[in-house]
């Protein structure tokens, strides 16, 4: 309620679940601009200390993992004026590859 009243966007995240630091992937639209950040699901490195962010987010999503998001993204896009999907799995070319996969899965190619 607070975010909506203040016209602030809730940032939806996809990240490893089951950790004390885990944030659930809430797809609520609270403002005209909606955002989804894909951090990867690298459970092995998620809470390990002393790693670089590149090591922590070293993860390439599979088609199946991205497909489970397709209906949610399409639903969010219907409700938001603008939707940004950001891949933060910043290892090698993983973000670009996953963005291209998602674009294809959503029929945007």
TrEMBL record:
<dbReference type="InterPro" id="IPR036520">
    <property type="entry name" value="UPF0759_sf"/>
</dbReference>
<dbReference type="Pfam" id="PF01904">
    <property type="entry name" value="DUF72"/>
</dbReference>
<protein>
    <submittedName>
        <fullName>DUF72 domain-containing protein</fullName>
    </submittedName>
</protein>
<dbReference type="InterPro" id="IPR002763">
    <property type="entry name" value="DUF72"/>
</dbReference>
């Amino acid at each position: 309620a607070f975010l909506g009243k203040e016209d602030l966007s809730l940032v939806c995240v996809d990240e490893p679940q089951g950790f004390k630091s885990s944030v659930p992937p809430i797809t609520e639209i609270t403002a005209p601009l909606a955002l989804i950040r894909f951090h990867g699901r690298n459970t092995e490195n998620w809470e390990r200390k002393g790693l670089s962010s590149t090591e922590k987010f070293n993860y390439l999503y599979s088609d199946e993992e991205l497909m489970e998001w397709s209906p949610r993204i399409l639903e969010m896009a219907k409700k938001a004026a603008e939707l940004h999907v950001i891949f933060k799995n910043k290892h090698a070319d993983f973000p670009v590859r996953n963005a291209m996969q998602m674009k294809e899965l959503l029929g945007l190619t």
